[in-house]
Amino acid sequence: MHNPELASRQLLALALQLAARRDAVLQAWRTAVQADPTLTTASSLPRSQFNDHIPGLLEAFEARVKTWPRRESAASGARRKDAAASHGLQRWQQGYHLREVTREWGHLQLCLADELTDYFQAHADLDPVVMPAAWRALAELCGQGVSESATQYFQIQQEEAAGHVREVERHLAEVRELGSSRVELFRQAAHDLRGNVGVVRNATAGLVRDEVPEPMRDDLLRLLQRSVSSLHGLLDEVLDLSRLEAGQEARAVQAIDAGVVLTDLVEQLRPLASERGLYLRADGPSAMQVQGDGPKIRRIVQNLVMNGVKYTRAGGVTVSWGDSRNNDARRWMVCVQDTGPGFDGRAGSPMAEVLKDATVESREVDAHAPQGAPGRAPAEPRQPVRVAGPAVDEKRGEGIGLSIVKRLCELLDASVELESLPGAGTTFRIVLPRRYDAG
Which CATH class is domain 254-433? Predict the structure, then answer.
């Protein structure tokens, strides 16, 4: 016959026994989980991380047995619910699959069921309501534990999925923006090509006319020669950029003498500057041993020199090289400085956007690349593009050469600094690694 006072005392004794056996229950649970061939994640966790919030949940179970048949306090129920949810979150962070979480709860339920069965068999005089109350408390514990753990697990997965969606949307927006900038770049190239073709057509039309005087014919021939040369150079730039955009360029790193490479380049380009009444100077050590891709370094500097010569009306261009400005022993620097008109480098200007787009891409490559990846130079934060000055008129076609420079710099793990003032010229600084990791 049921005796409420006796049942209350016996439930209290059962709760105290469960509290005394808590460590044994946790050990039995861990052993059962480790013996389960479908559960592999738990074996790599230390005891404290494996137990996680379960000791607190067992304490809540003991308290529930102790207080039966009184209603559980709202604070106690909330604590148990929060502990179960936190357990689900912790397991997700530890790399568990949902199936592993629910199977762990199943093993815990069986371990507690064994404890209750042993206690019942050792106490034949229990009040008839004691064990049903204990079984009900166990069902509440495990049912709520599975529910809250699974709910928390799915909520985290949904948040992670939403984050992936946002990331994909951001990348799609960047791809669309990059596509638009490339379309504009090649549109400018087409505009320049059309302009040069128009000059060639007009010059040719003049040359075939018999009545054209000889001095004018000579002028037309010189104009035709310059236009054809300009067309050839522009087509080369478009092809270079196309190869770089398609990933068809690879760097070939070897030991080079940067002083010899750059001195030879300046000597080869000096007649071009002289034809325009400009100087082209070299300023740097005659010998400078570094690692790098000599032909690509030449292409970078040549593009910048040609750009400077093209738009400089008086003065000239200086190519200098040496240590980086912050005395970083891992880097060296080559500068191309002209006395030309400068250009608008403010945010939003075409020239600044060409450099900004490529610099952002270069930063993202560094951010996602594993440290110490084969073939990469020692990491260095990319230098910001530094520009100054109000708007000035920019020439069509500059963007192609600078895009080539930036793509080549990315290929060589180099960074670009830019300073320009209207009327005071432009300076490009290319900062390169002195050596590369063996690939």
Answer: alpha beta
